[in-house]
Design brief:
Layout: H1 20-27, E1 32-35, E2 42-43, E3 59-62, E4 66-75, E5 89-96, E6 101-106, E7 119-126, E8 132-138
Antiparallel strand pairs: 1-2, 1-3, 4-5, 4-7, 5-6, 7-8
Bound molecules: zinc ion.
Length: 139
């Protein structure tokens, strides 16, 4: 009898009614963020009310996918057992051209050359048939 290899699955997003359009768009390799119909503020993460004026009925708009690295850290030990074979990897907060910031990974980038302020563009990591994750690479 052969033992099954021990597998630890990667933590994945569980879309809520508010975030479902974001994750559905990510599957199509589109980065959607919300915009307030009243004051035009762009908003991320997905939510019910505008963070500036409280208005409801936020609309979904396609983001440019461009931004800059606001801050980052290089994980040299895995932050989760499922990421053990990925070290070192870059965890970053990217400030989108539209204003909102999102937590993500920087890919196709030497961890020793990553810098705050580096221009980046969105890419998508297809984890499985249900989930694609927005990540960013140097532009
Ligand atoms: Zn607003």
């Amino acid at each position: 009898m052969t033992a099954e290899p021990f597998q630890i699955s990667r933590p994945l997003p569980r879309p809520s009614p508010f975030s479902r359009p974001f994750w559905e768009a990510a599957k199509r390799h589109e980065l959607l963020i919300q915009r307030c119909p009243k004051c035009r503020t762009h908003i991320f993460y997905p939510r019910y009310n505008c963070t500036e004026c409280g208005a409801r009925d936020l609309e979904w708009v396609k983001a440019s996918g461009k931004g800059t690295i606001y801050t980052y850290t290089v994980a040299r030990r895995p932050t989760h057992p499922a990421f053990a074979d990925r070290v070192p990897y870059i965890i970053a907060i990217v400030e989108l051209e539209e204003g909102p910031r999102l937590t993500t990974n920087i890919v196709d980038c030497d961890p020793d050359s990553v810098r705050i302020g580096t221009p980046v563009e969105v890419a998508f990591e297809d984890v499985n048939e249900e989930v694609s994750l927005p990540v960013f690479r140097p532009a």
